[in-house]
Amino acid sequence: MTRIVRTVIVKSVKLPRKAFRVFIELKDIYRNMVEQLVLYAVRNNIKSFTKLKALKYHEMKSLYPQLPSHYVYTACQDANTRTKSFLRLKKLGLAKRDYPEVRKVSIWLDDHLWKPNGYTSIKIATHRGWVTVEFEPHKQYWKYINRGWKLVSEAKIKLDKRNRQLIIYLIFVKEIEKCRPRGYLPVDVNENNVTMLVDNIAYTFETGTEKLVLGYHYRRKGIQKKYDKHYGKKSRIKRKAMRKLKERKKKLDIRWKIANIIVKTAYEKQYSIVLERLGKKPANNMIARIKDKQLRHRIFQASFRSIQRAIEEKAKEHGVTVIYVNPKNTSRLCPVHDAPINYNDNSRIGKCGKGGELWHRDVVACWNLLLKALRGDGSYAPNLVGLDVDVGLVPLASNATHDSIGIPKSLWARWKSLPQTQKAIVLNKMKR
Ligand SMILES: [Zn+2]
């Protein structure tokens, strides 16, 4: 069993002035407490929540007698987290001040300080008694409610002063049983596509990540340049433009869609997903072409790792296991002959040095990932024992293995899972 945790953010309805004022007061008191506690903890080098609470509980409680006493607990927890991260930064020489600044505050709530009130409102304990707050449920929220996720007793609230709303951070958990895999689903992630091998058939999802990530980077640079020149480095109008760009980028976020298709396929077949264990070195063409070191690093992070991470996250949700294998030579060796494959220039099609057959680079990578998983020479890969997969039966020599079914983004972006038959894909492709 694994426990997965998700935070879901909902917004309250616009609150009446009077009710909202209560929360402004509450936040000010809470902030005061956290400030005092952090100051004290840093000054006395207290890294333990229990110790901090033991030393300051009565003082805080007497300072704010109207406040429900559990706010002292949560403020101590909050302060403790801030203290620890500040001391860590200080140790690394990265802290600019002697004491941490308590700037952004969200009020931490525990089971004594709030409770659900039906499905669309909560009650919050304040220094002026319980206040009921209605919120606006959205699709994602209902998804968690309807799919058996449980609300935990901790929550946080933030104040949106301009709109007189509370931003409520609800935390859901779910226990998920991991099933034993019946086979493997290797997935190769590279600069312009994601390829997966399902029962000997390779599917290539075109992503155009390079274009997407680079395009975004240059647009961002463009905005920075334009606004910095006219309004200075810290203008509000620039922040707004950046936010808009970010939102648009999120919408275009293809990672989750790909992850969904892959994980659903693995889930239905009860397969484990096999991924390359990505090292720190960005060893690929796209990265090599970019000269700016930092940018290169960022793009690497953004495109490859994050697709993997999206797959991991989704896999966890569905109880699908993910295993990692060593990426060494995955696209360089022929999986049949164990001989080097020669690629001419920048071609993605190569010729096996021994057998002379042609291979598509991404398909080779998948086959090798599969073989590595089956042989168990990835560090986390299980042994073959007990799995009903027969290595001998894998039809490596058949023609179908050498190429993949390419699926353009315009097509798969609308899918929720892999269509039932190959025909559906081919047909769809022809229609375009
Ligand atoms: Zn070969």
TrEMBL record:
<dbReference type="GO" id="GO:0003677">
    <property type="term" value="F:DNA binding"/>
</dbReference>
<keyword id="KW-0238">DNA-binding</keyword>
<feature type="domain" description="Cas12f1-like TNB">
    <location>
        <begin position="304"/>
        <end position="369"/>
    </location>
</feature>
<dbReference type="Pfam" id="PF07282">
    <property type="entry name" value="Cas12f1-like_TNB"/>
</dbReference>
<dbReference type="InterPro" id="IPR010095">
    <property type="entry name" value="Cas12f1-like_TNB"/>
</dbReference>
<protein>
    <submittedName>
        <fullName>Transposase, IS605 OrfB family</fullName>
    </submittedName>
</protein>
